[in-house]
Amino acid sequence: MFEGILFVKRPVLPYIVLFIGVLIASTSAILITAAINLGVAPLSVAAGRITLAALIITPIVLLRSRDELRRISQRDFMLAALSGICLAAHFATWISSLAYTSVASSTALVTTNPVFVALVTWLVFRQRLAWGTWLGVLVTVLGSGLIALSDRSGGGSNPLLGDLLALLGAMTVSGYFLLGRHLRSRISLLPYIWIVYSTAALALLLLATLLGHSLIGLPPLGYLLILGLALGPQLLGHTAFNWVIKYLSPTLVTVAILGEPIGSALMAIFLFDQPLMPLQIAGGLLLLLGIGVTTLAERPAKATKKGT
């Protein structure tokens, strides 16, 4: 009887966890925007989020992965630290974008990172891209252009600056993903994210201090929102994606994550009264289509290369 239950439940559970992970990740932009609306500086939000996440996992890493940390080569440690710098730059630019543009535009543009990963793979690593990848890049560029047009008359909040910062966030997180792809074959998950998160936390705390943004004296609700970001999108959301990748195809997981800007945009309509403009909707749909095409075109190519 129990074997039958397990047989039924095991294939279903990863899909449920993936759905919950996307839902949790969708709250990231909402929590950030709520904190910014309270007067918390974007850099304080970024520094607080990643610092709390690093502090939470530190005792776990020291208990379970201390020996592996000691065995990591100096070169790999430095590359992981560089990945943390890329992550810090991602949070600094993307979270700042939410102070200038809408949740829908920001989250749609920051999810273009698969396109930048594909371009870096072509330009730096000299790997040929499939025609489907180029088609996805073209569609994504068109979608970005439509979003920029829809935000052109955004008033005093400077939405075009916000769009640019969101795109910079996509570029910098691409470096984080590329370095992670290279290092994760040699470093386990917990030691890797501890080095990355700790480095990102130090970089953001230093930057926030230099620019006069403090984590001291924030509104109590601001601290709760930052804690929610650390526990929810940063730890639970990312952990869910890292868990399901063992049971579901990387293509399915990557495409499913594209639901994040959709969930964020829908929540922003009701919570922050940020209606979607027709060009914004069209641009967002083109972005999702372009990213999906790029992802689907890239994965089979890798699988074929591995099989030769």
From TrEMBL:
GO terms for cellular component: membrane. Keywords: Membrane, Transmembrane, Transmembrane helix. The chain crosses the membrane at residues 12-40, 46-65, 77-97, 103-124, 131-149, 161-179, 191-216, 222-245, 252-272, 278-297. Residues 15-148, 161-295 form the EamA domain. It comes from the Bacteria. Belongs to the EamA transporter family. This is EamA domain-containing protein. It comes from Oscillochloris trichoides DG-6.
